[in-house]
Amino acid sequence: MLLINSLLILTLFLASVFDATTHKIPNKLSLSLMATGFGWNFFSIEGLGLTASGAGLAVGLLLMLPGYVFGSMGAGDTKLMAAIGSVVGPSQVLDVVFYGYLLMFVMAVIFITVQGDLFKLLRRYLALLYGLFSGVWAYQKPDRSEAAGRRMPLAPAIALATCYVIYPSFFTLDFNLLDMRLPTEYVEAIKSYICDPLRGR
Fold it and tell me: What is the pTM of this model?
Protein backbone atom coordinates (compact mmCIF):
# COMPACT_ATOMS: atom_id res chain seq x y z
CA MET A 1 0.00 0.00 0.00
CA LEU A 2 2.97 2.30 0.50
CA LEU A 3 3.55 2.55 -3.25
CA ILE A 4 -0.01 3.47 -4.22
CA ASN A 5 -0.39 5.85 -1.26
CA SER A 6 2.84 7.59 -2.23
CA LEU A 7 1.65 7.96 -5.83
CA LEU A 8 -1.69 9.28 -4.57
CA ILE A 9 -0.08 11.90 -2.33
CA LEU A 10 2.36 12.95 -5.08
CA THR A 11 -0.52 13.40 -7.53
CA LEU A 12 -2.50 15.44 -4.99
CA PHE A 13 0.53 17.62 -4.34
CA LEU A 14 0.83 18.33 -8.07
CA ALA A 15 -2.91 19.03 -8.27
CA SER A 16 -2.60 21.48 -5.37
CA VAL A 17 0.25 23.31 -7.09
CA PHE A 18 -1.71 23.58 -10.35
CA ASP A 19 -4.87 24.69 -8.54
CA ALA A 20 -3.06 27.31 -6.47
CA THR A 21 -1.18 28.78 -9.44
CA THR A 22 -3.60 28.40 -12.37
CA HIS A 23 -6.96 27.76 -10.63
CA LYS A 24 -7.30 24.62 -12.72
CA ILE A 25 -6.65 20.93 -12.15
CA PRO A 26 -5.54 19.25 -15.39
CA ASN A 27 -7.85 16.48 -16.60
CA LYS A 28 -4.80 14.35 -17.42
CA LEU A 29 -3.84 14.37 -13.76
CA SER A 30 -7.24 13.17 -12.55
CA LEU A 31 -7.65 10.63 -15.37
CA SER A 32 -4.18 9.18 -14.80
CA LEU A 33 -4.98 8.83 -11.09
CA MET A 34 -8.23 7.03 -11.95
CA ALA A 35 -6.40 4.66 -14.28
CA THR A 36 -3.78 4.03 -11.59
CA GLY A 37 -6.49 3.34 -9.01
CA PHE A 38 -8.34 0.84 -11.20
CA GLY A 39 -5.09 -0.82 -12.28
CA TRP A 40 -3.79 -1.15 -8.74
CA ASN A 41 -7.03 -2.46 -7.32
CA PHE A 42 -7.35 -5.02 -10.13
CA PHE A 43 -3.79 -6.30 -10.50
CA SER A 44 -2.28 -5.90 -7.02
CA ILE A 45 -2.75 -8.55 -4.32
CA GLU A 46 -3.27 -5.63 -1.92
CA GLY A 47 -5.92 -4.10 -4.17
CA LEU A 48 -9.57 -3.71 -3.27
CA GLY A 49 -10.91 -5.09 -6.54
CA LEU A 50 -12.61 -3.45 -9.50
CA THR A 51 -16.02 -3.31 -7.81
CA ALA A 52 -14.70 -1.40 -4.79
CA SER A 53 -12.66 0.88 -7.06
CA GLY A 54 -15.71 1.72 -9.17
CA ALA A 55 -17.86 2.21 -6.07
CA GLY A 56 -15.27 4.57 -4.61
CA LEU A 57 -15.25 6.60 -7.82
CA ALA A 58 -19.05 6.81 -7.83
CA VAL A 59 -19.25 7.81 -4.15
CA GLY A 60 -16.58 10.50 -4.53
CA LEU A 61 -18.27 11.89 -7.63
CA LEU A 62 -21.81 11.91 -6.22
CA LEU A 63 -20.86 13.50 -2.90
CA MET A 64 -19.00 16.33 -4.64
CA LEU A 65 -21.67 17.00 -7.26
CA PRO A 66 -23.82 19.25 -5.00
CA GLY A 67 -20.87 21.59 -4.50
CA TYR A 68 -20.28 21.70 -8.25
CA VAL A 69 -23.97 22.25 -9.05
CA PHE A 70 -24.24 25.15 -6.57
CA GLY A 71 -21.00 26.68 -7.81
CA SER A 72 -18.93 26.33 -4.64
CA MET A 73 -16.32 24.16 -6.37
CA GLY A 74 -15.11 23.45 -9.86
CA ALA A 75 -15.36 20.40 -12.09
CA GLY A 76 -11.67 19.72 -11.48
CA ASP A 77 -12.23 19.32 -7.74
CA THR A 78 -15.12 16.93 -8.38
CA LYS A 79 -13.12 14.79 -10.81
CA LEU A 80 -10.16 14.76 -8.44
CA MET A 81 -12.30 13.41 -5.60
CA ALA A 82 -13.74 10.75 -7.92
CA ALA A 83 -10.18 9.73 -8.81
CA ILE A 84 -9.27 9.50 -5.13
CA GLY A 85 -12.28 7.24 -4.62
CA SER A 86 -11.06 4.90 -7.36
CA VAL A 87 -7.84 4.45 -5.37
CA VAL A 88 -9.03 4.23 -1.75
CA GLY A 89 -12.50 2.72 -2.24
CA PRO A 90 -15.94 3.80 -1.00
CA SER A 91 -15.31 3.55 2.74
CA GLN A 92 -12.25 5.77 2.90
CA VAL A 93 -13.47 8.25 0.30
CA LEU A 94 -16.44 8.98 2.59
CA ASP A 95 -13.96 10.12 5.23
CA VAL A 96 -11.97 12.11 2.67
CA VAL A 97 -15.11 13.92 1.52
CA PHE A 98 -16.17 14.68 5.10
CA TYR A 99 -12.81 16.09 6.17
CA GLY A 100 -12.39 17.75 2.78
CA TYR A 101 -15.64 19.69 3.14
CA LEU A 102 -14.66 20.62 6.70
CA LEU A 103 -11.29 21.98 5.61
CA MET A 104 -12.84 23.78 2.64
CA PHE A 105 -15.29 25.51 4.95
CA VAL A 106 -12.54 26.60 7.34
CA MET A 107 -10.35 27.83 4.46
CA ALA A 108 -13.27 29.70 2.90
CA VAL A 109 -14.18 31.45 6.16
CA ILE A 110 -10.55 32.46 6.73
CA PHE A 111 -10.23 33.70 3.12
CA ILE A 112 -13.46 35.72 3.29
CA THR A 113 -12.57 37.14 6.72
CA VAL A 114 -9.12 38.25 5.55
CA GLN A 115 -10.74 39.94 2.53
CA GLY A 116 -13.13 41.82 4.86
CA ASP A 117 -16.35 40.33 3.44
CA LEU A 118 -17.44 38.18 6.39
CA PHE A 119 -20.36 40.44 7.39
CA LYS A 120 -21.65 40.46 3.80
CA LEU A 121 -21.62 36.66 3.84
CA LEU A 122 -23.44 36.51 7.18
CA ARG A 123 -26.11 38.95 5.98
CA ARG A 124 -26.65 36.89 2.85
CA TYR A 125 -27.16 33.65 4.76
CA LEU A 126 -29.34 35.32 7.38
CA ALA A 127 -31.56 36.53 4.54
CA LEU A 128 -31.63 32.99 3.16
CA LEU A 129 -32.55 31.58 6.58
CA TYR A 130 -35.31 34.14 6.99
CA GLY A 131 -36.60 33.30 3.52
CA LEU A 132 -36.72 29.58 4.29
CA PHE A 133 -38.92 30.22 7.34
CA SER A 134 -41.13 32.74 5.56
CA GLY A 135 -41.52 30.68 2.39
CA VAL A 136 -39.68 33.18 0.16
CA TRP A 137 -36.42 32.32 -1.62
CA ALA A 138 -34.16 35.20 -0.61
CA TYR A 139 -30.65 34.00 -1.48
CA GLN A 140 -28.50 36.35 -3.53
CA LYS A 141 -25.49 34.94 -5.32
CA PRO A 142 -22.29 36.86 -4.48
CA ASP A 143 -20.85 38.96 -7.27
CA ARG A 144 -17.27 38.85 -8.48
CA SER A 145 -16.27 41.87 -6.39
CA GLU A 146 -16.79 39.88 -3.17
CA ALA A 147 -14.39 37.28 -1.80
CA ALA A 148 -17.23 34.71 -1.69
CA GLY A 149 -17.72 35.15 -5.43
CA ARG A 150 -14.11 34.47 -6.36
CA ARG A 151 -12.58 31.08 -7.08
CA MET A 152 -10.55 29.63 -4.23
CA PRO A 153 -8.16 26.69 -4.79
CA LEU A 154 -9.65 23.67 -3.00
CA ALA A 155 -7.20 20.96 -4.05
CA PRO A 156 -4.94 21.68 -1.02
CA ALA A 157 -7.88 20.97 1.31
CA ILE A 158 -8.65 17.74 -0.55
CA ALA A 159 -4.97 16.74 -0.36
CA LEU A 160 -4.76 17.41 3.38
CA ALA A 161 -7.98 15.48 4.02
CA THR A 162 -6.66 12.52 2.03
CA CYS A 163 -3.34 12.54 3.89
CA TYR A 164 -5.19 12.62 7.21
CA VAL A 165 -7.39 9.65 6.26
CA ILE A 166 -4.49 7.58 4.93
CA TYR A 167 -1.91 8.47 7.59
CA PRO A 168 -3.81 9.73 10.66
CA SER A 169 -0.87 9.01 12.97
CA PHE A 170 1.16 11.78 11.26
CA PHE A 171 -1.41 14.33 12.46
CA THR A 172 -1.64 13.03 16.03
CA LEU A 173 0.54 14.54 18.74
CA ASP A 174 0.45 11.96 21.51
CA PHE A 175 2.30 13.67 24.33
CA ASN A 176 1.24 12.63 27.83
CA LEU A 177 2.54 15.28 30.18
CA LEU A 178 1.70 13.15 33.22
CA ASP A 179 4.25 10.56 32.07
CA MET A 180 7.04 13.12 31.72
CA ARG A 181 8.75 12.75 35.10
CA LEU A 182 12.24 13.96 35.92
CA PRO A 183 14.65 11.50 37.52
CA THR A 184 14.70 11.67 41.34
CA GLU A 185 18.27 13.01 41.52
CA TYR A 186 17.35 15.95 39.28
CA VAL A 187 14.32 16.74 41.43
CA GLU A 188 16.42 16.68 44.62
CA ALA A 189 19.10 18.88 43.04
CA ILE A 190 16.48 21.44 42.00
CA LYS A 191 14.94 21.40 45.50
CA SER A 192 18.30 21.95 47.15
CA TYR A 193 19.19 24.71 44.70
CA ILE A 194 15.98 26.57 45.56
CA CYS A 195 15.59 25.78 49.25
CA ASP A 196 19.18 25.92 50.59
CA PRO A 197 19.64 29.68 50.05
CA LEU A 198 16.27 30.26 51.75
CA ARG A 199 17.28 28.19 54.80
CA GLY A 200 20.49 30.19 55.13
CA ARG A 201 18.60 33.47 55.47
Answer: 0.73
